[in-house]
Amino acid sequence: MLDPRTQIYLASNSPRRAELLTQIGVRFARLSLETDERRLADESPEDYVLRIAVEKGRAGRDRLSRGDLLPVLAADTAVVLGDSVLGKPRDSADARAMLAELSGRTHRVLTAVALMTPDQERTALSESRVHFREIDEEEARRYWATGEPADKAGGYGIQGYGALFVANLEGSYSGVMGLPLFETGRLLLEAGIASMAR
Ligand SMILES: Cc1cn([C@H]2C[C@H](O)[C@@H](COP(=O)(O)OP(=O)(O)OP(=O)(O)O)O2)c(=O)[nH]c1=O
């Protein structure tokens, strides 16, 4: 049974998104999702993450029973290097190739947030720039063995061992981790949902 104090649904399987939403004191229930995350030909990285976040939000809303009017929040994160968008690594070789590409360079992390209310779809986009120090093959191998890269866009987690690679971050730490809290709090407020619940 749904706790009557629940404010929104979080349409996400990501434990990080749940952790971040808890951080700002929003009372939520989770909806799990299966989403096709393929990028369309000629789709910009910005359009791509926004489209996927909206699709996740709509899929979540479609799962609600009739008459359930609680808003649905969803997000999508991509690591962008030049023209390429790095998703989650397929395997060890893919993950090590991603780290080799990111090594010693600056990449962007885009996270789109979508908030679906019965009468409106609101979106926000967070962009961060992350500079990695150089990472050698041996370290990339050890990093894969920790299990951390497997389920993360770009094959790293800034909130974990991945912090060791981040020489500089310009933007939103929570956005890189998967849910930009400033933008999320603003969207929630626009929809009349208060954070900082105790
Ligand atoms: C870059 C980076 C990504 N990530 C994670 C956040 C997201 O969970 C994941 C990006 O994949 P997403 O497809 O955005 O999300 P997801 O499939 O994990 O979850 P959902 O059910 O909401 O679709 O990478 C980190 O945890 N730390 C990081 O530093």
UniProtKB/TrEMBL annotation:
Q: Does the keyword Lipid metabolism apply?
A: no
User: Required cofactors, per record?
Assistant: a divalent metal cation
Task: Tell where it localizes.
Answer: Cytoplasm
Q: Which GO terms describe its cellular component?
A: cytoplasm
Q: Does the keyword Zinc apply?
A: no
Which residues are the signal sequence here? Answer: none
The annotated site for Important for substrate specificity falls at R16, T77, Q159
The entry's keywords: Cytoplasm, Hydrolase, Nucleotide metabolism
What protein family is recorded?
Answer: Belongs to the Maf family. YhdE subfamily.
Q: What does this protein do?
A: Nucleoside triphosphate pyrophosphatase that hydrolyzes dTTP and UTP. May have a dual role in cell division arrest and in preventing the incorporation of modified nucleotides into cellular nucleic acids.
What name is this protein filed under?
dTTP/UTP pyrophosphatase
Q: Identify the species of origin.
A: Thiorhodococcus drewsii AZ1
